[in-house]
Amino acid sequence: MKRWKTLAKALLVLALVLGLLTWLVFRLPGFGGVAEGARLARMQASPQFHNGRFENTPPYVSDMSLRRELHDYLGEQVREPGFPVPVVPMTAAQLTTPAAPGLRAWWLGHASALVEIDGVRILTDPVFSQRTSPVQFVGPKRMHPVPLPLAQWKNIDAVVISHDHFDHLDMDTVKQLAQGGTHFFVGLGIGAHLERWNVPAAQIHEMDWWEQASFKGVTIHCTPARHYSGRTSMNNSTLWASWMVKGPTHSMYYSGDTGYAGHFKAIREKLGAPELALVKVGAYGDTWMDIHMNPESAITAVQDLGATTLLPVHWATFNLAYHAWAEPVVRTLAAAKAQGVQVVTPRAGEKFEFGQPFQNLPWYLPAK
What Gene3D superfamilies does this protein map onto (predicted)? Predict the structure, then answer.
């Protein structure tokens, strides 16, 4: 009996130590902040907030199982490229002058893109660190360099953030951009993370779905998505979103992470069809479809939006799912061809100018 009591005490001590360590880890700056006071009250007043958390409509019901996830994880797909991913280097000089009129985009890897629209320079979900993690010594690592190193990113007018997962919201990138006066447009609650990272309050714009903000001659619309959130767990403590940016002449849409649902048609009905759509095509699985579209669903979403051109994002940079590395773009191009959707597949750092000819190269396939 004494031996069992000793063992029980040891297990209790171990549990307490592990609990304390977990608490300390979650206090690291990379995990961000917690909404309180007026910020929390505004979140609670949102039509998307129910029972202490944000919810999709209808709510997301997971059909994941440990057995199925383990089966998919142990699959034989080649999830990383067996060759150096081609990157077109960018220079800091490209950002020293104001953005020119027109509409152009540089895909930077994963969900990060630089878009210049009617003279305004905007980044989508910029993640320029080496790992998608609250710390940089562990976590999914980049499979190709950023076209421009983090320290050289300056003169960015605005950033739109779709949600607070680590592959979409990166503390070091936010801090670098904030020093240069960049403004951040984020879903409800995400401002708490930015405030903890010392982003000035005047540069933070928290928005609910269907709200809009005028900024330097363009209008930034916070639009719905179907996903989930949480910096430390899947607790939906912040609001996920997609974004439409409309200028006097041009328009662009960024999907963020989302499952396929009726919100794409609703966005077109309320705001019109965008010219350029940056839509996620990678990181999907059979049990993820309610919150992560596959390529065929992404093409349907683009059709619902009525977008002129699709630039696929959310693939090729981090190993985050169980499909083959190049599968997302191969399936996207096949579905687009079948449905008559125009797609551009630039290399990371390669410029696409809307309205100008663009040649898609099969850079994502091994050289023959």
Answer: Ribonuclease Z/Hydroxyacylglutathione hydrolase-like
